[in-house]
Structure formats: structure tokens, C-alpha cells
């Protein structure tokens, strides 16, 4: 996956550790390698502005000129319930 961190520079490249504590005990420790690649800031800024302009309040997209408005098609509540149940079952089984 690619992420854009505007404040990152080439000297920030390397291995990092993220650790979460609870009551002075380490409960999660993740390691990741950060690769920094230079980018053209102007292009990134222009794309961000276009993206910001294309969204309406609530995350809705602007309709295409002359076209019908976008409608959001959600799956049925029964299907959503079945999927959520399956995910929770897998989670509980993986926890042992």
C-alpha cells in the first residue's frame, strides 16, 4: 500500500517500531519498514484539491454533468447480518 506523508524526508527511511502499553506493560509491538520516495508536491496538491472538490457533504460524489445522480446500493440487512456473524465466528475461532 502507498501512503503520502508530506513531512517525511529521505532520512526517515528505515525500520520503525510501534508499541502499545497498558498499565506499563507492552501489549502490542509492531515493526515496519518505511521506504521514502520523492514525489512531485505540486501534482499531489492538485490531485488532493480535485478530490476534495468532487465530494459533497456526507462523502457523496458529485453527479456527472448531464447524468443521473449516483445512488448508493446497499446489500440487504439479512446479508449484512450473515456476513457480520461469519466474521465474528472466524474471530472467535482464531482466538482459540
Write the layout of secondary structure elements.
Elements: E1 14-22, E2 25-34, H1 41-54, H2 77-95
InterPro entries: SPACA6 (IPR034549)
Transmembrane segments: 78-95
Keywords: Membrane, Transmembrane, Transmembrane helix
Could you describe the 3D structure shown?
The protein has 96 residues and is an alpha+beta fold. It has a domain at 1-63. It is built from two helices and two strands, in the order ββαα. It has helices spanning 41-54, 77-95; strands at 14-22, 25-34. Strands 1-2 form a two-stranded antiparallel sheet. Strand 1 and strand 2 form a beta hairpin. It is flat, with a radius of gyration of 21 Å. It starts with 13 loop residues before the first strand and ends with a helix. The model has no long low-confidence stretch (mean pLDDT 74).
Q: Which stretches of 5+ consecutive residues score pLDDT under 50?
A: none
Shape: flat
Kindly provide the radius of gyration, computed on alpha-carbon positions and rounded to a whole number of angstroms: 21 Å
CA(first)-CA(last) distance? 30 Å
Question: How is the biggest beta sheet arranged?
Answer: 2 strands, antiparallel
- Find the structural class using helix and strand composition: alpha+beta
**DSSP strand content:** 15-25%
Helix content: 25-40%
Q: How many distinct helices?
A: 2
| Major sheet strand order | 1-2
Jot down its keywords:
96 residues, 2 strands, 2 helices, single chain, 34% helix, alpha+beta, two-stranded antiparallel ribbon
